[in-house]
Amino acid sequence: MPKTGKTNPEATAAPEPHGAELLKLSRSLSLARSKLHAQDLRLHAILDNLAHGVSLYDRQGRLVLCNQQFLDIYRLPPELGRRGTTFRQILEARVAGNTHVGDDVEDYVADRLSAVREHRTLGGIHRLNSGQVISMTHQPIDDGGWISTHKDVTELHNMQAELTHLAYHDALTGLPNRTLFYRRVGNAFQDIGRTSGFAVLCLDLDGFKAINDTLGHAAGDALLRQFAARMGACLGPLDSAARMGGDEFAVLHRGGDGETAHALATSICAATLAPYDLDGQVVSIAVGIGIAVAASDGSEPDELLHNADIALYAAKREGRGGIRSFEPELNRIGVDRRRLEADLRRALEFGEFELHFQPILNLRTHAFSGFEALLRWQHPERGLVPPSDFIPVAEETGLIVPIGNWVIREALAEAARWPGELKIAVNVSSVQLVRGSLITTLVQALAASGIGHERVEIEITESVFLENSEQSLDTLRQLRALGVRIALDDFGTGFSALGYLLAFPFDKIKIDGTFIRALDSAEGAETIVAAVADIGARLMMATTAEGIETPEQLRGVHAAGYTEAQGYLISRPMSRDAVRRLVLGAEDAMPEAPLEQRAAG
Ligand code: C2E
Ligand code: MG
Ligand code: MG
């Protein structure tokens, strides 16, 4: 190789002092350049590995540098990433790629440019028109330019939104939950005065529990979803519904008053009644609704919802599918009820219950055939509380199970002291047939008292057939298998009473006292009373006429062919001791007389 390089005077000639300086300078320049290049590389390595998109602009609004993430987030072509691209070009490309914010493009561009001019710091979460959610900062720097960071937080944001949704909604129906409902009611209170009034509706399904218990939870869930959809279809554009838990729902009715709330409740009740198809099983339910109107029925969410609940309770007391609006009088009843419930819980333990016995007259032999045990609650302050006041509460709370078991043991033990031909009738509520330990208790009480099974009569009412009738019928069959008799009480007061006679072979029908009372006044009562006696005779069932108060009534039912009669005319319910005196004679009626004594007598 010719030594061309060496001929270069710059390189080969003896270095002049000036040339040496230059060489030094050029070396340090290239050193600096390669350092700079290395720095630049490092800077880009850092930028490209940041989780954020970064863009840096000079004071003229020209891009100094940016990283790939920045281009990716806004779907910008690579050539726009070059130094010198104007901020306006970038904004325009974003508009073209739909990665800008808002409807008005000019507004958006003007807004961003004015932030730049005014050296304002910007920041926040923006939802781009593309749907992406970007966390952005815009920070002016000393030389008049600015640096922006951009992070795509769409996934995080959606996750958060989902979590928030989960925290405030019921997973089964998708409806808002109690927490969100309370918040909405709170907001509605704040809006009072600005918009028109509002009301809350508390809803509770009738008959849900029975369906859930018998058909299973999947069917129960399906029923709740179908109900929620029907309720939703009744709502106006300002109304919103919530699931408060179990089979309880609530509606916030905005922009209306008590009257429109009642109309809404009526339409929900009607929509609820149509049959539901649960995977082939057709069932029907009803809904009870309580209404409280802001602000007359409550000035804060708690109070308003509480009062709507009280109204709901009153609606449910009045029967299936009822609607009640709150009134202050209900509050007093509510307080009374809570107190009653608390007292009832202690009544058994404190020995506050006793049984009275009403004689039943056999109309063929004109002798007493037995007694019906009627529960009495001697309350320490209230005095005697009638069963109609506390039995519904005992049924709702489930307390009827231990109380009813006590009645059975007590009634059979008492009957064991009477002459052997006298029967004992015990009222049993439908709740006891479905849950509780009725059969076990009865078997034990029969054994403990030693009385003949055929002396025991269980009185049930038609309500047994309203809920969970399959399970109830099953229990009735088991009772029958024990050899005890079954009577259908208060006959004629329920729905489709005749149908129940086909459902189970009762030993006795007790026609309700209202028909007997109607004998004096209502036309047609006589025909009904006679027809029931006839039905009983044809089905080989005994018939008892309840509530006989006058000799005419007694004559009437006797003529109609009833086999038994019961009522104040014959005897009011009597205390245990009075019955003992009646059936045993005075000296045998001493308390706790041993069985042998009676047997000997
Ligand atoms: P029920 O089983 O139909 O009992 C008859 C009710 O009519 C009794 O009311 C009785 O005192 C009343 N009565 C009897 N004769 C006459 C009359 O001539 N005129 C009028 N107006 N009423 C008469 P009571 O004792 O207040 O019981 C009411 C209901 O409470 C009973 O109706 C029964 O359904 C229920 N009950 C009573 N004791 C028990 C019990 O131990 N368990 C359950 N589950 N329910 C009970
Ligand atoms: Mg009865
Ligand atoms: Mg009755």
Rg on CA atoms, Å:
43 Å
The helix content is 40-55%
Q: Give the C-level CATH assignment of the largest domain.
A: Alpha Beta
Q: Strand-residue fraction?
A: 15-25%
Quick synopsis:
It is built from 24 helices and 21 strands.
Explain what this protein looks like in three dimensions.
This protein folds into three domains: 50-153, Beta-Lactamase; 169-326, 2-Layer Sandwich (Alpha-Beta Plaits), CATH 3.30.70.270; 338-596, Alpha-Beta Barrel (TIM Barrel). Helix 10 crosses helix 11 (258-273), helix 13 (328-347) crosses helix 14 (387-397) and helix 15 packs parallel to helix 17 (438-449). An eight-stranded mixed barrel has the order 13-14-16-17-18-19-20-21, surrounded by four helices. The protein has a five-stranded antiparallel beta sheet with strand order 2-1-5-4-3. Strands 7-8-6-11-12 form a five-stranded mixed beta sheet, with helices on both faces. The protein contains 24 helices and 21 strands. The model is unreliable at 1-13 and 587-601 (pLDDT under 50). It is α/β, with parallel strands linked by helices. It is 48% helix and 20% strand. Residues 372, 427, 459, 489 line the site of one magnesium ion (MG).
